[in-house]
What we know:
The protein has two domains: 1-30, no CATH class; 36-76, CATH 4.10.830.10. The protein is 34% helix and 5% strand. The chain has three helices and two strands. The model has no long low-confidence stretch (mean pLDDT 85).
Amino acid sequence: MTTSDHKKMLKQLKAKPAVMKKYLKHNEPKDRSCGINKFKCGRCGRTGAHIKQYGLHLCRQCFREIATKLGFKKYN
C-alpha cells in the first residue's frame, strides 16, 4: 500500500458508514515520528531520497530538475 492508497477506497464506502469507519481505523496511515516515510517531497510526493537541507524538502529527482533555477551550480 502506498502513502495515498487508502483514500481511493473511500468512494466505494460512502454508502456504508459503519464499514467506512472500521476501514479508516485500520487502514489510515499513522503519523510517523521517525523513518523514511516521515518526510515527503513537496513537489511530487515521493518519500525516498529526500533533501531537507536548507528547507528544500525535495526528492533528489526533483532537485536535479530545478537546482539551476534555485541558484545551485554544478561543479565538475
